[in-house]
């Protein structure tokens, strides 16, 4: 294990899921002292690269604990502790408490100026895209009670998702939305949508397999320049079709990279960003799906492909002059989240008539190097914890479904 370098300021990683695990491992291997803040059985809690771990679920308690870790320092003072959120909920914590947290920590500028919040909210994000001539899937806005009255001008199938999905993510059991293949489904789906979901976006589903989804991650520095631009294909997701990455491979995607870097520059974005596109086979046009304003689950493949996005952002925030040198991307690096990807592969093998066709795993070419989302022989603890965490979630969700069905049909 790399010894901690005392000249490097510590990093505080908010969220200890496999996304936070990548950040902890990347910075820990660079000699950075890493403090993790998470809750429950999150896998990164058992990483050897954490110098310290705080287990806190409540946002108010988390805020107080964070501010108690380090004293207040001037914002222009070099060597301040660096705060890196790895979930939308933790980004929201910073957005809501930026002035106070800014007295203790360095964090990316997009959290200070409110731009990250506008990108996270799907309705305002698509408004930003429209203003900058970036194509996105056609959509309509409505509320939960207005679904049945939607006009027919939006072709089925649809994806329905909350505009502020991060605000009710815990109520969605890992789903990114609700799929509607015909209007007869609307009534049943309406009852599944939480009453507090707020504005809903009813969006066309771009046809074609999920292996046509392209990914871009980048560090936009304080001068507005794009550093460590990395591109890949999302070959499979969990849940299938409309979930988080379970199989990703580094692959040259210059069109996607050009669109997102131009958009981020136009918006004045500063910090880490991760974008997702899908090419519409009807027009050949790339359509943007979303931008994450934090590290994403699949970021570890970027490091293996010689594009250290997280390390680049950390070193700028830390005031370290030596930013990682730009190197050509290595294509063919395949990343897999084993258990989840196995489930998705089995789903496609058994299910016919799904709204999307099975993915074409060969679309990104042969795999030249493979790595796991969680397993690492140098740091085995998180993989064991992740198995336990996935089993716990599966049992909890099955129990919730059984309870809900019995409540709806007491006979």
DSSP strand tally:
15
Our estimate of the beta-strand percent is 15-25%
The number of helical runs is 12
Kindly report the spatial arrangement of strands forming the biggest sheet: 13-12-9-10-11-14-15
For the terminal residues, how far apart are their CA atoms? 59 Å
**Which series of helices and strands comes N to C?**
EHEEHEHHHHEEEHEEEEHEEHHEHEH
Uncertain segments are: none
Rg from alpha-carbon coordinates: 21 Å
Helical content, roughly? 25-40%
Shape: globular
Q: What's the average pLDDT?
A: 90
Question: Which structural class best describes the helix and strand composition?
Answer: alpha/beta
Q: Report the biggest beta sheet as strand number plus sense, adding barrel if it closes.
A: 7 strands, mixed
Describe what this molecule looks like in 3D.
About 30% of the residues lie in helices and about 20% in strands. The protein is of the alpha/beta class and about 400 residues long. The longest helix has 28 residues, at about 380-410. The model has no long low-confidence stretch (mean pLDDT about 90).
């Amino acid at each position: 294990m790399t010894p901690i370098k005392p000249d490097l300021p510590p990093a505080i990683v908010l969220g200890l899921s496999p996304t936070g695990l990548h950040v902890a491992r990347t910075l820990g291997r660079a000699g950075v002292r890493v403090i993790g803040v998470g809750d429950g059985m999150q896998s990164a809690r058992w990483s050897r690269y954490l110098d310290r771990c705080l287990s806190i679920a409540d946002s108010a308690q988390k805020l107080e604990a964070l501010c108690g870790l380090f004293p207040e320092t001037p914002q222009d003072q070099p060597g301040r502790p660096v705060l890196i959120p790895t979930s939308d909920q933790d980004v929201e914590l910073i957005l809501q408490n930026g002035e106070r947290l800014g007295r203790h920590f360095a964090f990316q500028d997009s959290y200070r100026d409110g731009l990250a919040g506008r990108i996270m909210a799907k309705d305002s994000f698509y408004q930003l895209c429209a203003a900058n001539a970036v194509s996105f899937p056609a959509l309509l806005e409505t509320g939960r009670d207005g679904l049945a009255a939607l006009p027919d001008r939006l072709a089925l199938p649809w994806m329905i998702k909350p505009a502020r999905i991060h605000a009710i993510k815990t109520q969605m059991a890992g789903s990114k939305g609700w799929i509607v293949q015909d209007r007869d489904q609307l009534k049943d789906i309406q009852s599944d949508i939480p009453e507090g979901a707020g504005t809903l976006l009813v969006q066309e589903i771009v046809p074609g397999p999920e292996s046509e989804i392209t990914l871009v991650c980048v560090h936009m520095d304080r001068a507005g320049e794009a550093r460590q631009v990395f591109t890949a294909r999302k070959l499979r997701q969990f849940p299938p079709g409309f979930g988080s990455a379970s199989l990703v491979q580094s692959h040259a995607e210059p069109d996607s990279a050009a669109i997102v870097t131009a958009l981020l520059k136009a918006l004045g974005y500063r910090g880490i960003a991760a974008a997702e596109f899908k090419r519409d086979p009807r027009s050949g046009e790339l359509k943007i799906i979303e931008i994450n304003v934090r590290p994403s689950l699949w970021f570890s493949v970027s490091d293996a492909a010689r594009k250290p996005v997280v390390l680049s952002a950390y070193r700028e925030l830390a005031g370290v002059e030596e930013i990682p040198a730009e190197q050509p991307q290595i294509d063919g690096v395949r990343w897999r989240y084993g258990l989840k990807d196995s489930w998705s592969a089995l789903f496609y093998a058994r299910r016919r008539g799904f709204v999307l066709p099975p993915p074409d795993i060969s679309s990104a070419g042969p795999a030249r190097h493979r790595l796991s989302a969680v397993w690492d022989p140098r740091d085995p603890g998180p993989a064991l914890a992740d198995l336990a965490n996935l089993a716990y979630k599966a049992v909890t969700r099955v129990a919730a479904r059984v309870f809900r069905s019995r409540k709806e049909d007491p006979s």
